[in-house]
Amino acid sequence: MNLILQSTQAIDLPILQQVAKAACATGVEQPSEFAYRFTGVDKYQKPAVDEICAQLPIDYVFAPAMSLDEFGLVAMDMDSTLITIECIDEIADMNGLKEQVSAITERSMAGELDFSSSLRERVALLAGLDESVLATIYEERLQLQPGAREMLAAVHEQGIKTLLISGGFTYFTRRLQAELGLTWTIANELEIIDGKLTGNVLGDIIDANAKAHHLMRLADDLGLNKEQTIAFGDGANDKAMFEAAGFSVAFRGKKVLKAVASAAFDHVGLDGILNIFPASK
């Protein structure tokens, strides 16, 4: 078992010394400038580490001593996880309804609303918008989260398959797939007729259960066990997927998701996973 501390700034030596002692570490490595990996730690000392680190700008996690190449599938949410925006909120902004839709999105992510019904409610408010707004959002507003390209480059270099699975929309996931070389993408399809959004979603909604199902299905197809899968997400719709994965990261996650996550990245970028599970040389 390892304990990884990482931040976006230098971690003071006294803090490192306190953590090493509290975790009963037998060794320490520095995988990157602001990250430290303590080896041979006692996971039952987590409360002592919590007491030291909880109020500091540090992401920390007890994790199995594995290397990245021991995994075979990385699954990730899109909105507010791989990318910085909620696409549906930005589409609504084009219709002057961002505040109204964002409030529903926030409650859905926190687990206060049923995802499928809340998505249909939000999409209905987009009826009549020209489909060109989707291109505008992709080209002008959509940005990757810090560390996203670095994480994906390392994962793909190790031969790991990637799945972008989203309660958002195929317009964006398919373009991200082409841009980033993702293995698979799964998302919801907006109905568009005569160049206009109708306010409807085609087919079944990609909800929490669907995310878990597709992760497990692809892992089975690849001959992987649960421990060989990693999932990234940020909201309640990712909870079932986290429970199906071997290791899970709540990226700027909601409280309901952090409760079941293996790790929480509240400070570092998506490439923080590389400090937890180093790539093989």
Can you give a write-up of this model?
The protein has 281 residues and is of the alpha/beta class. The protein folds into 2 domains: 65 residues, ACT domain (Alpha-Beta Plaits), CATH 3.30.70.260; 215 residues, HAD superfamily/HAD-like (Rossmann fold, 3-Layer(aba) Sandwich), CATH 3.40.50.1000. It is built from 13 helices and 11 strands. The strands form 2 sheets. A 7-stranded mixed beta sheet has the order 8-7-6-5-9-10-11, with helices on both faces. Helix 1 packs antiparallel against helix 2 and helix 5 runs antiparallel to helix 6. The longest helix has 14 residues. The chain is elongated and about 65 Å long. The two termini are 21 Å apart. GO terms for molecular function: hydrolase activity.
SSE layout and pairing:
Elements: E1 2-6, H1 13-22, E2 27-32, E3 35-39, H2 46-53, E4 59-63, E5 73-76, H3 78-82, H4 87-93, H5 98-109, H6 115-124, H7 132-140, H8 148-157, E6 161-169, H9 170-180, E7 184-193, E8 196-202, H10 208-221, E9 229-233, H11 239-244, E10 247-251, H12 255-258, E11 263-265, H13 273-276
Parallel strand pairs: 5-6, 5-9, 6-7, 9-10, 10-11
Antiparallel strand pairs: 1-3, 1-4, 2-3, 7-8
Helix pairs in contact: 1-2, 4-5, 5-6
CATH class of the largest domain: Alpha Beta
pLDDT averaged over residues? 94
List unreliable stretches of 5+ residues: none
What helical percentage do the residues reach? Answer: 25-40%
Span between termini: 21 Å
Rg for CA atoms: 20 Å
Largest sheet: 7 strands, mixed
Q: Please list the strands of the largest sheet in the order they lie side by side.
A: 8-7-6-5-9-10-11
The count of domains is 2
Shape: elongated
Full CATH superfamily name of the largest domain: HAD superfamily/HAD-like
Family: Belongs to the HAD-like hydrolase superfamily. SerB family.
Cofactor: Mg(2+)
EC number: 3.1.3.3
Pathway: Amino-acid biosynthesis; L-serine biosynthesis; L-serine from 3-phospho-D-glycerate: step 3/3
